[in-house]
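Quick one: examine the sequence and fold tokens given here and explain what the tokens say about the fold. Here goes:
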Amino acid sequence: MAMTSEFVSAINQIASERGIEKEEIFTALESAILVAYKKEKFMDLNLSQDEEESMGSNLTVELDRETGEFKLIATKEVVKKVTDDNTQISAAEAEMISPNVEVGDSIQLEMPAEEFGRIAAQTAKQVILQKMRESEKEAVLSEFSDKVGEVFSALMQRMQKGQVIFEIGKATAVMPQEEQISNEFYRLGERYKVLLKSIDDSEVIVSRADPKFLIELFKLEVPEIESGVVEIKAVAREAGSRSKIAVVSHQDGVDPIGSCVGQRGIRIANVMNEIGEEKIDIIEWNEEPRKFVANALSPAKIEGVNISEETATVTVDEDQLSLAIGREGQNVRLAWKLTGYKIDIVGNGVKKEEAVVEEVKEEVAEEPKKKSTKKSAKNDEVETVVTEEVKPEEVVEETPVVEEAAKEE
């Protein structure tokens, strides 16, 4: 069976575009066509799979790589008396093909190709498509297997059953619903940065909701993180809403928070532009757990932290209580994820009362000085004298002295 030149050219083109070796396609075609021929040839015999394989074990398919011509070859044993036409040939018939053949030798015969041509045509398309899919999977594995955890620019192709289908180079990537930012809308034909999260069964899985995606975005924007001068120690994220990042500097004189924020906030602004409306809190990591927990609850002001096993009890003023907890408990929840400690926040009512007393004292001190009058000993004129506020204790001590002076008069 000879293949048309157009079909051979198509195979060459597919092999070139997909990066597939032509020999792999030809070999796959030979194997698949042979399997299809044997199934159709022995289909009516109701044989088991093992019996079908044994029945056609002497058959092979050969493909001429230049002309595209298929040949079905049967290898038969030369015998005196034939008992199986499929695997044996008589010595007299064999001598007509090759004069020097003897009993016990094997001889190869080209089989008639009336039905073989139709089977080959039906099978060729399926084999090529299957080989293309396999080659794409292999290409994906070879190209991306060592790049898991990196960020790529992906082209949005379509939505499919809630999943977003992206194109990364020649590979197709899938972003499941749980890896999407909840309040984000993906537009056809636009490019998005995505994290290559994993490769499952040759399928590329990408994410924009994973905390590691945030880390990689900061690496792209902050040279100090990429070089290792500043390190991201921990990340807690609720994608699309709010995140907390703990950073530390390994070089004196380098401010880790300032490095992430950038001059006039340009670095963190670039990160936030990529993830939409999500807010990012950057805090300084501290090896002392109590200080780290206090920093993690920023922007709330913390009065004290007491850690017992895996629980941190945090004391705050009453006016800082709602800020420490956050809307729907988000701030304390993110702090728990960031530090690994279960956090209990307690309002410090005593501290609040003392603060009120201090405010009252300040108000009293600011009032105008009290005025009192007394007679001058020299001219009996009444003059106004400014006196300091008299404490009750001082009045009690001076009372006996006044009584004695009255008795003497």
